[in-house]
Every structure is written in structure tokens, then in C-alpha cells.
Amino acid sequence: MPKIAPYGSWSSPIQAADVASAGVVPQWLDVVDGAVWWAEARPAEGGRVSLVRSVDGDVEELLPAPWNARNRVHEYGGRPWLSDGTTLVFTNWTDQRVHVRDLISGEVTPITPEPHEHHGIRYGDLRPGRKGEVWAVRERTTGPRRTDIARDLVAIPLTGGEPRSLSASHHFLTAPQLSPDGRHAAWLGWNHPAMPWDGTELCVAEVHEDGTFGAHHVLAGGPDVSVCQLEWEESGTLLALLDPDGWWNLHRVTLDGELTNLAPAEAELGGALWKLGARWTVPLGGGRHAVLHSGRLAVLDEATRSLTPVAPELTEWATSPAVFDGGVVGIAAGPRRDIAVVHVDLGTGTVTDLTPQPPLPPAGYLPVPRARTFHTADGEPVPAYVYPPANPEFTAPHGELPPYVVHAHGGPTGRNYPVLSLDFAYFTSRGIGVVAVDYGGSTGYGRQFRERLRERWGLVDVADCAAVAGALVAEGTADGERIAIRGGSAGGFTSAASMTTVRTYSAATIKFPILDLEPWTGDGGETHDFESRYLDGLIGPLPETAERYLKRSPINNIGALAGPVLLLQGLEDEICPPEQAERFVESLRGTGIPHAHLTFEGEQHGFRKADTIVTALESELAFYGQVFGFATPGVPPVDLRR
């Protein structure tokens, strides 16, 4: 017989430490010399990224501590490793240099010069170049401002020495890829104020006998067309994901610029290029291609121009599928299974785990996400995933409705997926529902849906989240007096903007946020180069729309704040720097509004350390308990100031 206890106060076997342990996340997967390799983020090691490979069912570590395979290109990082099976080339976080590790002797040697200033030169998106070289994007600081950055494409000698510059066609670039015959190189480029999901160009240049590049030519893309991935098919053709018709579809591109859509569909087979080296498609041969259709694996057949879903129980694939052992290998998760490295047999659909599922609590404590579509007052669709409270040991008193937390994803050009989330289960198993909202601007629904947010950030996202929360209250699913909103980065902005413009929520958790829009620009100096003109599209160009920046900045609307807020911030964040949260908190002092501000040494954008993840989650739970009036046994209270 379940115990009767108020929502939010239920005891749960899912602890914050379990969530942190589940943060050992595979990434940057590829197949090398017949084996599956991947990078692996480890919260218990301070967020260090190692590199491992699967051999006969065992996982072998290839990059021991203290090496950390990360880089700062675009601050979000790019592909950090490359190998031929005997040597490993990788970027190291501490010095941002490129290193080579001999996998036989274990010796590690830096092959790029030491920069004159800390992290003054960084490399990313490592690719095979001509014999004896690795090709990459190089990023160099040129002045004191966060936006003082220059980039070029370089060839790095494996024997070490000064990298050789190959091209600098655009302000932003992906690493060049060498054609099979070695005669051409191809890459993507774009310039401010565009983001890569707005408009990019697919460039090709001739590679001369001395290894230099000729003048580049643009084969596809443009100011209103996004190209998010390219791969050489043959020496005269490329495969590319681009969206001239409003959807990222797979195209064949010839060297004279002829473009053929291989399977026209209102389907997103690509995504937002946040990290250089992301991959959504890989050729299978015979006119068939593995693709990620809104994050799910499918096979595209050129002959029938069709998309066939594969392994539908896996509802999110990381952007690194690869061909392996007659099928596809990748990193995937589903509603009832945590993220793992998996192999899918394309003939039978059989899924085999190459990494074990982490220990999970019994299924009764894990909510299964319910995909739903809500609507705004204007009839606009708003997709969302509802994670209801779930705990077999407890039930709530008769007539009580559960508190709910609206989760606003980051980006804002991001999205949610219907997968098992221990982060969410930490709350739902205690009786707090979660709903993850894909507000206007999210990827996965075509360019038109993305562009609902154009110049309307702080309006559309706020209204869409509020519409979902309001619908849950109206149908009797959630307690309208106990609705909170949470989010990090751009989701932190949406959370703060919601708290200062609508009366839907009683509390907000705001993580590493944007709170003051005008300083979060290139001229304002409080963000990095990659996103320093992002607000041109999200808010409007300056100085013409300066008034919007003032009106939509949460820091300028503190007098309208609807309730208590919890701010969580990494102190080494170069994307949403801590001074934004500091000014917001300073403005809150003396207002009488309960608030807490927790900062974390050594954390950048997003939390990677186990102890940070634990503190952040427990503080968030305690915060909701204090605001909504339920006990949180075993979790210390947050010091709410006024």
C-alpha cells in the first residue's frame, strides 16, 4: 500500500550523486581500424574528457589522466581527436595545444607551439590532411576583448612545428576535408551576423602540388540557406545537408555546383552546428544513407526517395553515427534506457549495447515522457514532453495536484528529446512533475518554426512556455499555484524573462544565464565571438532596435519579478559570464524578493564536476520545497536572502 504524503516530499532512491554518476557521457564517436572509439566526459574526474575504444566487448582507455580531450574553439568546442589506430592526435584542454600520443609507447608529444598567453591559440575539428599532416581550424586571440578572435584553416605537421595556414575564407569555418584523389578541399564558412543555422556557404578549393590552396569557390548555401554537414562521396561529388526548401535534407553536390535532393521531405536530417565536427549522416553504400531524422535513426534510400525508421525505441542519437559491422554504431538513448554506445543491425533492427547501461532504479521511479502538442492563443503548435510524478511507494493526499517545473532548453536554437532523464527523475520521483518545452525557435521542426523566434526572443519563447504551463493547469494536471520554470544559458534567459513578464510561475531556477542583453553583444563585451551577433537575429540589429534590448532584459524588469529565484553560475564561463548574474543579484538586494546565488569555481558553461552537479540539484530541490511549502528530507535548505 503506497504511503500518503504531499507531492514534493516523497523519499526517492534517486540521489543527486546518481545523476552526477550518470553524467559519464560518450561523445565524438568514430570507427578506427575496425574498432569503435569515443570520447568520454567524466564528472568524477572534474569533467575530464578521456578517449576509449571497444575491443572484444571490453572498453580500453586510450588517454589517461591528466590529459583532457577538449578545446575552446567557438567556446563550445570542436572535434578533439583523430587517429590512424597507432597514433592518437588530440587537443588538450589545459594548454589548448595539439598533442600526439604514441599508442604503443604511451609517449605524448605536443606538435603545436606553446601560445604566448593562456589559451591564446586553440585548435578544433581535427581532420586527416595530406600525408604527415592534420588539418584543423585555428582560433587566435588578437586583443583584449572576448570578440578579438581571428580564425584560419591550418595544416599541422605531425612531426611538430609551426602550422601552415591554408585559407581564411570566412570569419567562421569548419576544418577542410580532402577529396579522395587529394586534388580538392571542401569546408563550410559563414560571417557575422549569421549563425550557422541561418546561412552558410559550402566552399571548395583546389589543392596544389605544394599543399597550398587555390582560390575557393562556393558550391552551395548562401545567406538564407544553411549547410550543416559535408562529406566527400567521390572525387567529383560531395554529400551535404542543407535547407534550401526549409528543411535540412541530404543533397548531392557536384564540383560545378549542380544540386540534387536525394529524398525531398519535410524532415530535419540535420541540425544546428553548435560544435564543429558534428555529423548527422553517413553513407551506407548502394545509394543508401544512415541519417538522423529529428534525432532518430533512419535509412534514406535514393532509389525510392524514402526514409525508413530504424530502432524506433532509440529516440535521441548524438551527432556522430558511423558504419560498423554491417550496421550503424552510435551514441543513443530512449524513454526507458539511458545513453549508451549502441550498435544497430540494419537488417533486423536489433540493438546491442557496447557500453553497459548504468545502474538504474526500478522502472516505477522513472517517468516515461509523453509527447504532446499544445497550442498558443494564436493557434501556434508547441511540442512538449511531459514527465509526470512517478514513485510506486507514494501517493498524494486526495485532491492535491502536483507542482510542476517547466524546463526551457538552451540555445535557444536547441530542442528536447523524449528520453530517460535522471535529472528530471530526481524531481518526478519526489512528486514534482516536469514538462520540457520545444518553444518557437527550436530545431527539429523546419526553418519556419525556427524563425518564429526571429527578433522575438523573450516574447515567443515566454508565451509558448506559459501556454504549456497554462494548459497543464487548465486540464487539472498541475497545481497552478506551484508552477516553476528552469533553464540554463538561453533557457536561463527565458526563465528570467518569464518571471519578469508573466504571472504563470511562482519561482524560477536560472542557470548560467543571459540577463542583460545589450552587454551580451560584441560591442557590449560580455560574450564570446561566436554568439556576439546572435542577438541581431533574436532581438534586432543595433542601434536601430536598442529599445528592445532594454525592455526585454530581465535585469531591467526586476520590479516586476513574480517570485523567488535561484541562480547557479560557473565562475569560468566565457559564454554567459558571471558578471551578468552578479549584477542581477546586486539589483535584487533589498527588494524583499527571496533569492539565492550559488557560484562554482572551475566550472565553465554548463556543469561538468560531480560535486557541482550534486550541489546544484540538491539546492534546486530545496529551493522548490521552501517556495512551495513541502519538506525535503536529507537535503539542506538554501539560504534565501531578501
TrEMBL record:
Peptidase S9 prolyl oligopeptidase catalytic domain: residues covered: 421-629
One protein family per Pfam: Peptidase_S9
Gene3D superfamilies: alpha/beta hydrolase, TolB, C-terminal domain
Protein name (database record): S9 family peptidase
Source organism of the structure: Prauserella endophytica
